[in-house]
Amino acid sequence: MVARTCSNEIFLLTVVALCFGTASLTAAAGVSLALGAFLAGLLVSESRYGMQALGEILPLQILFSAAFFLSVGLQLDLGFLIRNLPIVLGAVILMALLKALVTGVSVRLLGERAAIALPVALLTAQVGEFSFVLAGSGKALGLSFVGLGERGTQIFIAATVLLMVLTPAVAALAGPLATASTKLPGGRKREAVAAQTAAAAPAEPDAHSALPVAGRVVFAGYGPHARLAARALSRAGVPYSVITRSPDGASELTGRGAPVLIADYTRAGLLRDLNLASARALVIADDDAEMTERAVSVARTVAPDLEILTHAESPEALMQLQALGARHVLTPRREIAAGLLDLLTPEHLTRAEIARHLADRPAVSLSAEQQAQCGHAQHNAGPTIPEADACLECLASGDTWVHLRTCMTCGHVGCCDSSKNKHATRHAHTQSHPIIRSAEPGETWAYCYEHGWTK
Fold first, then answer.
1. Distance between the two ends of the chain, CA-based, in angstroms?
2. Which residues of the chain have pLDDT under 70?
3. Bridge partners for 241 per DSSP
4. Which of 31, 72, 402, 439 is the one with CA 20 to 30 A from 161?
């Protein structure tokens, strides 16, 4: 029910309430509060809304992690560290070796190569946050680090801080060590066999990703337009994936066997994890203009070269989306015009002519002198993007024109009064759009139908 509202605020509050509520219930049942919170996190992360929840709470997680590591650092007694440096270093080495060994052997037993096992082992050699939960529970039971009481606790804290500081340096050793492992006797042979085995195994594209993306069209949002486009792609045999905040849309796609992920597609971290840059194209089909702009901006940051397609309801929105990095922006007027021209193609126009007539046009504006002529000019000064470099209404009827005029209110392009149909004037009177501007090359004059001025 909460997910159907598509409200980030309500969703975040619900997730937080669920986590705190679960933690409180487990604590009331006699289990530690920390373990209850851990179980609540598992509950949320394993649900179909796990990725969306992660995207919403990630800023809080970063904040709490920073507070946690700061609190660990504040517990460090530098004097104790200096006085007991040998035993602290011994604890550091023991912890790191033990954790790296257990992790590395586990990864190898899972069938991964040494080039993967080494980085994983070295990156997890430090003491994790959950160790402090266990240490606190042990202390409550009268236990301490290696049985040294308060001194053992200080050794544990000092060793933990040193491991955190050394983690980047230790992780940097992974590359050279993995390379060196292949140079040992039999190393290259083992790597070659592993590579051949991996190559012979059935391909599982994006196996480690929450959603297959590589080479696919990715829909951000699953409204009516996206539904039609997705079904057309299915009939054409073009693979696609969908990221949506709608549980109903996700259920529909799951029923059809289409890949779908319930998540907020304006989160840069999510798009990076999905490797959005490997997609064939991104179609942003959200009905919310603000969400569309955020999605375009974030996607362009994550994938600078990706083809981004979206839609706009006004010339101003079109210009804003293009400035944010959307390469193809559809508008209702342009879609209708394209449909008309496509239907007329066999009789009147070639595909090249359609592309030329519907190509993106530079925005036009009124000069300051023109704006000063009347109130209409001041309120319709632009910038406005002409919808085409042809009179689409004349094309639809098979007629020709003499000159073209651009409506400064909506960008409509129509033929002049010297033309047979006078579509520019007809549009101005029908729509109550008083200002037009010449659409002819080199002409900058404008005209107000009500005030009758031209400059």
1. 59
2. 6, 51, 175, 178-209, 315, 332-362, 396, 452-455
3. 218
4. 31
pLDDT in tens, 388-409: 777 877 876 777 888 888 888 8
Please give the distance of CA 3 from its chain centroid, rounded to a whole number: 18
* Tokens coding 180: 């060196």
Q: Which residues of 431-453 are buried (b: 16+ CB within 10 A; e: fewer)?
A: eebbbbbbbeeeeeebbbeeeee
Give the other-Cβ count within 10 Å of 355's Cβ: 12
Structure-block tokens of residue 379: 């309120």
> Domain 360-448: which topology?
Herpes Virus-1 (3.30.40)
- Structure tokens given for 158: 């000092």
DSSP code at position 387: S
Q: Options 3.40.50.2000, 1.10.287.130, 3.40.50.720, 3.20.20.70; which CATH number does 217-330 get? A: 3.40.50.720
pLDDT digits (tens, 9 = 90+) for 195-243: 454 444 444 444 445 788 888 899 988 887 788 888 888 877 888 999 8
> How many angstroms separate the CA atoms of 24 and 36, rounded?
7
> Could you tell me the two tokens for 408?
């400064």
